[in-house]
Amino acid sequence: MTHPLASDPRRATRLWRITSVIYLIGLVDFLVAFVLIFVAYFLSADVLSVIALYMFIAAWPVLFVAAVLDVLRHR
């Protein structure tokens, strides 16, 4: 029995694009939050540090979902 993605290369390509976009969103979110942490530290801005913290919290599930999709794509 073959895997459904092996029989349809168009679906595998579409899943690869979706996974790449999700990875990119998570990575950009993580990097922006990382920069905001330093900006908030140097400006002593509590609001920016809270925003950065929420962005870090939001980045992890996005990266986790992308990793799970990537594993499922390679199955």
From TrEMBL:
This is Uncharacterized protein.
